[in-house]
Amino acid sequence: GWAMMEYYIANDLIGAKLAPCFGNLIDDPMTRMSTITCLDEIHKHECVGSMAYGDTISPTKDQIRNLATTASYVINDIVMQMHTPTGHAINPLPVTEVIRIPTPEENVQAQMIGAQLKVEAERQYLITDFSKIEERAHFTLENSKKFFNRILDAFSDVIDVTDPLKLVYGLKQLGADNLESMFSNETPNTGNAIDRKPYIETGMYKMITSMIENTLAKTEMSDSALKKLNNKKAVVACTDVHQYGKMIVGAVLRKAGVEVTDIGCNADTDDIVKCIADNKPDFIVLSTYNGLALSYAKDLKAKAEKTGVWGSTPIFMGGRLNDDAGCEVPIDVTKDLEEMGFYPSDEIESLITLIDRIL
Description:
The protein is α/β, with parallel strands linked by helices and 359 residues long. It has 14 helices and nine strands. The mean pLDDT is 89.
């Protein structure tokens, strides 16, 4: 559905040529392979893709196991390019991706593995039955079109949906989570998008819902903690594109009776500062992953001090608390964050305990 919207804006309204990418949040072979068919249909069989990104949700800290995961999606991605050549470049991930930013040598190793998997894919192609993939693609496109049309129908009541700037601005203002909650099904869902049942569950969706359930089961809150958190106001956000940590924290906090405002991914430090000044939340939780914890924290603190709101609201940071400080691999910056006045925690269970103690 999003691919249809992107095509409509870029190709139909602007007259540009969009090169779509996908893949890092899709682990299921059927979904990965049928996505290529869908994109080819959406782009009227003139699709020129950019990248079929490697699966980033299946790998674990076990590097040998990760080799098997890489083999699975790379072979299937290559097979689909042989069947439906959309031009998407194949992206075998280094087996250390889930642990830290890979070294140049590990990136080279991944490409060498990918080259050998191309040989295996050429043999696999000869015995692959594409009928079930086509069937899945048809089902996906049918329901995606409904999502696309619902958005345009609703937006057409308030804006000119043939104006690409107004349409993009409207989509961004409402936000992906709200749009999916409101328009994915016939009946709008009043909660978060994660609370609804999708037509097809992606691996990312399954992983997030499972992590939320497991975290809620493991997180025991004392009566005093529940009483302290009840009716508190919190803001949650991501410093980058990785949002499942934020979603899990939000779910746990809501369970405790916290009023949670989610300002999304790639949250700008200016937005955090403005949120502190305007909304006066009781605390803020930031999720970070991409090796920028310290640089982001420094920028946030400097702007908060400049506007006079630093110290008024506790700011907790979780996730991968490291920073790409010009070293070959990112370094841990937990102590640096503590010294600056932030409250770091790399586990959600310990985060709840920390919030209870600080508040």
